[in-house]
Amino acid sequence: MADGKKIAILGAGESGTGSALLAQKMGYEVFVSDAGKIPEKYREELQEQGIVFEEGGHSLDRLTGAAEVIKSPGIPPTAPVVQRLKEAGLPLIAEIEFAGRYTDARMIGITGSNGKTTTTLLTHHLLERAGLKVGLGGNVGKSFARQVAAGDHDYYVLELSSFQLDDMYRFRTHIAILTNITPDHLDRYEHRFENYIDSKFRILQNQQESDSFIYCLDDEGTRRGLASHRPVAKQYPFSINEKVDQGAFLDNNELTVKTAHNTFNMTIAELALQGKHNLYNSMAAAIAAKVLDLRNEVVRESLGDFKNVEHRLEQVGKIQGIEFINDSKATNVNATWYALESMTSPVIWIAGGVDKGNDYSMLKPVVREKVKAIVCLGKDNGKIHEAFEEDAEIIVNTLSAREAVGVAYHLAAKGDTVLLSPACASFDLFKNYEDRGNQFKEAVKQL
């Protein structure tokens, strides 16, 4: 117990409020500070629990009186309040780091530029179907801290962003999954890919020889990271290009998983998630399941009946023979590449938003091959026009989901696909990617 030790929390969303509940339970004197307006449900929860908070700004004198600060991952290290707290010598940590101190559960941590949410949900689905007492947290579900405060689990499956990993120091993942590393959020990493790679590999810190590291052998960014980071845990690579001794690979349209104890096989046609990117996600989750010695029957059933996350290649409907797909969660170039690569019909591509330093060059070949027209959805579409002016015959600008869907519908013909896969953040026109996806789906319904 903390016995009245003071702790401050920056940000009062799900992560911050969960941290406050756990800190209070563990005997801390808690102060929550949010620069914006706290959402009503969290404000009420803090009030009900008698937790002191402020909103609309930060009181530095109250924050600097804390022994430790739990920081929301959405607050950048360059924020003035963060800089002032660092200057004052205060340790800043992530919610995951804090909550991890108060549980003895086995941790399955999943990170990567793309696929981490799907892989996290699929891994949780596998463990839950096996009858294990498992929690789901990190960037999905209820906050990890809230779950530890409410009642512990034997396992946690946690989706971990690079922003969370940056503020984690002693936390240990017993099973670490790295889906891939492609340039993303480089504005937070001095526009250096190597800095971002280093951030992702923080998931390996504190692992021991008895732990497991699951990673994509086919991913160039991961291979670059392995050249400078030496895992101590048992390694389980997965690949669709070559066979591995232990891990997962593709052999004549059959997914094979090998561990020291047994082998699991399943045809890719049986997988609930189709497409190359989802094959990788299924491989990673299946390895984790077999490392935990889950029965083959449970793994096969779970991989076959899983339903994917909303806003990720979500089929919205078909109108006049035109398919509409919501991939609003694709907020970087690599995620959009996977989406375009998986398309089997001509595409009207809705793209754009807040550019995070994107390099669109990797998309040019697939755009030339599959895209009939580009509908830009954002306030500043200059980079998209510049990148694809030689690859797409039609590029038009729109400023709302309804306008974008209407324009795309008129540009499409029977048998085409209208794909919202922005490759950009959403904050210029929308609250978040969920809001963007929901407005897209509503606009399709209105056609």
TrEMBL record:
- SUPFAM superfamilies to which the protein is assigned, alphabetical: MurCD N-terminal domain, MurD-like peptide ligases, catalytic domain, MurD-like peptide ligases, peptide-binding domain
Q: Would the keyword Cell cycle be found if you checked this record's keyword annotation?
A: yes
According to its UniProt entry, the protein's GO biological process terms are:
cell division; cell wall organization; peptidoglycan biosynthetic process; regulation of cell shape
Q: Which GO terms describe its cellular component?
A: cytoplasm
- Catalytic activity annotated for this protein? UDP-N-acetyl-alpha-D-muramoyl-L-alanine + D-glutamate + ATP = UDP-N-acetyl-alpha-D-muramoyl-L-alanyl-D-glutamate + ADP + phosphate + H(+)
Where is this protein found?
Answer: Cytoplasm
Identify the EC number(s). 6.3.2.9
Domain Mur ligase C-terminal per the UniProt entry, residue ranges = 311-424
Q: Which family does the entry's similarity section mention?
A: Belongs to the MurCDEF family.
What's this protein's name?
A: UDP-N-acetylmuramoylalanine--D-glutamate ligase
Naturally occurring in which organism (per UniProt) = Anseongella ginsenosidimutans
